[in-house]
Amino acid sequence: MPVNIEDVRAIVEAQDTWRGHETINLIASENAQSPAVRELQNNDFMARYAEGHPNKGDEVLRYYQGTKYIDEIEFRLVKEDNTRVLGMIRGDFQGTGGYLPNDQVKRLREASNVKIVEQESMRIMMFQINNQRPPLNDANVRRAISYAFDYDGFNKEILGGSVERNPVPIPNNMWGVPRDVKGYSYDLDKAKAELAKAKAKVDRPITVGYLQGFSQTEQAATVMANGLRKLGLETKLTSELWPTMVERMKKPDTSPDLVVYWISTYYADPHNWIGEMFHSGQWGTFKASSFYKNPKVDELLDTALKSTDRKAREKAYQDAARIVVDEAAGIWIYNTKYFGPWAKTLEGIRFSPIGNGQEIRWLSYTK
Question: What is the DSSP string of 146-166?
């Protein structure tokens, strides 16, 4: 069927007008391109091969030639931490991801040609507790488990102080945090006291889920198991790939007793965390796998979501957080810190907590 190029051009122009000028775009993960970026997209690069690696001097590493300018600006995908770090130190890369093991961050700090941009992100690591499954439907049992996790041992020793303790279900650096709430600490005496008060008895192993391929989640699960063992509680560790675990977390009867993962910033509002995690209307999503239900908390979260008054919203989120923490609906461990390695020849570096991204459009080379 013949295609009229003018029809296609009209559709493209309509899209540009609609989404580019007439719409408030609220999908955080979409690319928001500046006019300069849009201008540069229509160029010769778009139709050229660039297989292989950038050529180095007389060493030909590309499968096709004619790439000398592509070599100057190419982004390279390198999965191995050690390879990425070595590439930064050698000057092969101008930047890489900011979530690296402590030993690799140390190597980069010592490199003369690399600078580290350090920022507290908005990415909470936490255990969701299955509030609907006995004996975890008893708040005293949940409090005992919360006191059994060695927060300082995990954050300061295992992770080397590379994260910030975050005791509530809203990131430390987000508005709506109740600053008077200190959360739980590692205290086995308090844990035993809570177990003694519990009406439900822990007469079976507690299943602790973690994510395959994410070593920190396995470490956290192990720390939790060690703490519970000291209380005389048996545990069973189980691991899944993220897509499989997400499916399990959709229902109370298939989700583990505890599962550890991260809640990232999809949009910069407290509802992204406490609202989507602890409103009972969110059951069936991976964020709400605590299956927590408290009518008062639902009411507070609804009030915060519907109101346009910032002060009223903040108070509602703070009050909801106090209740959720008191009832130990989950276990909040830390807020992530970003350690962004960049070449010292770059300036204009900006970090965005939305998706833990780097705003590349501001970068430029120093003169």
Answer: HHTS-HHIIIIIISTT-SEE-
Q: 227 in helix, strand or coil? A: helix
* Gap between the Cα atoms of 179 and 172, Å rounded: 9
Q: Is the pTM of this model over 0.85?
A: no
Instruction: Give the DSSP per-residue string, 203-216.
Output: -SPEEEEEETT-HH
Contact between 248 and 254 under an 8 Å Cβ cutoff? The reply is yes
Please tell me the chain's helix, strand, coil percentages from 3-state DSSP, rounded to the nearest 5.
40, 15, 40
pLDDT-derived band of residue 22, with 50, 70 and 90 as boundaries? confident
Domain ranges in the chain?
48-77, 120-337
**pLDDT at site 353:** 77
Q: Give per-residue pLDDT as tens, 211-235.
A: 998 889 999 999 999 999 999 999 9
CATH number attached to the domain at 120-337:
3.10.105.10
User: What are the phi and psi torsion angles at 181 (to 5°)?
Assistant: -90, 115
Segment 85-96 shows an average pLDDT of 89
**Angle between helix 102-109 and helix 81-90 axes, rounded to 10 deg:** 0
Q: Which pLDDT value is given to residue 77?
A: 63
